[in-house]
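Task card 7
Instruction: Convert sequence to structure tokens.
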Amino acid sequence: MTSRLSATFVVVLLAAATAFAATPQTVTIPAGTAVHFKLLRTINTATAKPGQNVPGELTAPIVIGGRTVASSGAAVNVHITTAEESGRIGGSAKLIFHVSSITLANGSRVSVRTRSYSREGKAHAKHNAKYIAGAGILGALAGQAIGGNRNSTAKGAAIGAGVGIGAAAATGKFDFQVPAGEHFSLSLKSSVTASL
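Output:
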């Protein structure tokens, strides 16, 4: 009878332990937690659009209190909030994105909001000034050589500057890309509570 009672007690204890283990537990990922990830697709400012999502994956696990909440290699969603292509004469390319969701260790997805990655492309001022000023000077010299007076020099400079503006416009797009595989670390802006 004692062995039968002991066996029943062990079965009840195992059932209770299994039920406890199967019960989802709530975990809070605190604000400021670093999310280390890499992009799985290249983002180019010439083609990217605000609102677009790009796949990524964690490059380091998210561990809270000794428990792995999200494993290395887990999927993340990268959300583009700003994407502007470069203009030909002015307007630098811009790109801003953040992580908007993470796949947890149990396979569920949780919405998050990290700090944003922001980058602005090369400015046009120096590039354009070289073309416009250089062509203006050449035009002025050509006007002086051809006409031999101030009026010819001014007309040559104006024509040369116009050619310089055209050359700057023809060569002036400064878009950039963030390649697939590039690593980032962005911190959570607010805490996230999830069931595991």
